[in-house]
Structure formats: C-alpha cells, structure tokens
Give the backbone structure.
Amino acid sequence: MTILVTAATGNVGKEIAKQLVEAGDQPRIFVRDESKAKTMIPDGDYQLAVGDVTDLAALESAMQGVEAVYTAVLDAYREDTTYLQNIITAAKNAGTKRIVLMSAFKVEAYPDMPFIQWHNKAESELMESGLDWTILRPDWFMQNFLAYVKEGQLNLPMGSGKNSFIDTQDIAAVAIEALKDSKHAGKAYSLSGPEVMDHHQVAETITKVTGRPCVFNNIDPQLIKQGLEAQGYEEWYVNMYLDITTPMRAGDVRTPQPDVEQILNRKPVSLAEFIETNKTHFLDACPE
C-alpha cells in the first residue's frame, strides 16, 4: 500500500517516514522544502511530493494512488483548519480511505484552553468527514529534553506537575499500525510512556544515566514569557506555551495509558532508555 506522510519534517512525521523507509514500505513524503526533507529523512526508497497543505491542487496530485494519510494538527494555523479540509477533500477526490491525525493529550480536560480548542476543532472535522479516521493523542515528547537541557540545567515553568513522557519513535510506530490496519478506524488513542514523573525526577534520571549532575529549576512563567519575546517568538506562540504549561504548574498528573503497549505488543520506551540511546547528547548538555 502507498502511505502519504504530511507534516513529514515534524518530530513525529519524520520518524514515521524513517520507519516506513527502513521497513521497505516506499512511502510518499509531502513537504514544502525538498532540501530540508532530504537532510531529515534518510536515504532510501521513497517518493517525494513537494507542496503546501494550503494548496489543494498539490495535495490532490500527491494523493493519487494513496490508501492512507498521516497528518497532524498544525498549531501555526490555529483556528483555521483549511489545511485539514484540503487534506480531507483531496483524499475523497483521490479515493483515499484513511487519515491518521496526531492531536494532543487530554483534549477533554481543558475545553477552555485555546490550544485544546483548535485541536478539538480539527478532531471534530475529521470525525465528521465520512472517511476512516484514527486520532493519536500523545503526552509530551521525550525529544523535547534534547533541546531543554543545557549546561546541566532544566529550566522550565512546570511546577510539580507530572507527565508520562513518550518517545516519538513509539508514537510513529503506533501511527504506522493505524495507517496500515483498518481495525484502528474510528478510534482515538491516548499515547504515553510507561511511567509518570515530575521534572525533578526527569533531572534525576538524566543524572543517574549520565553520571553527571542535572538540576530542574522551576522558572517563573513571566520570566519565560520575557525570554521567548526577547528571542522573537510571536505573541500567539508565547501565549500557547504559557497555556499548555499551566496544568503542570497546577499540579496536573498524567498517568500512563495502556494504548501503546496494547497496539505494539511491547512496553513503550522509558525515559532512562531514551537518555541512554541519546547519551552522547546528554553528556554534552551536562558538563562535569
């Protein structure tokens, strides 16, 4: 079967593409920037379609002969889901049967949060499309720590909240199962890692695996806001970041969910395993 991967240079999309290529599945990769795609997606047997999700004609061309599509809720478009409507329309016109959409964890818990509202809107539009759909709702990515840990410090406005952090490789593996097997149609999966921990415990785990000190510092959100603004981030992004971290500061606890293990028939990757796999990076980020 031919699978189309949109959002293919995102954290999860590129991992889906990589796993499909490594499995010899010859996916079709839909990207805006061909040169960027070739640096992020490994050499292998895949097709490259260049275009933008706001361009219906480009999507219709890329969708020819495709049986299933992966996409994600694109925060950059926020309330405007034209991109998803284009994907749905192109799929219908091409006879594509299935769309797998990556959304967000616990969308039912924060209905007044703008970030959640635009995810809920996208989910509803897909569910009402008449196509087979599967929705993936992952917790925070372990890959974030590759960027967050610097000089042995983990500086975030997360308070005492606890997450069940997940490796994007596991999200991608679940997405591929949903893309290939119609038994996942009409289902929404909550995806998490195998353990729940706060950010102090994250830092302790980094210390344990690397043998080098790492400390979590709970930063005042207003300082984070000032820092993001100073770096040139747009107002919508700053507000979104503060919104999505609010539950953590309020002490939210996101307990592990069984869906990954039930779908993949194995336990999800633990944070310690993730750090071990990326140990060279964390050693550099935590100097002696």
User: Anything to note?
Assistant: DSSP finds 13 helices and ten strands in the chain. The mean pLDDT is 94. The CA atoms of residues 2 and 25 lie 8 Å apart. Strands lie at 3-5, 28-31, 47-50, 68-72, 98-102, 132-138, 149-150, 153-156, 187-191, 215-218.
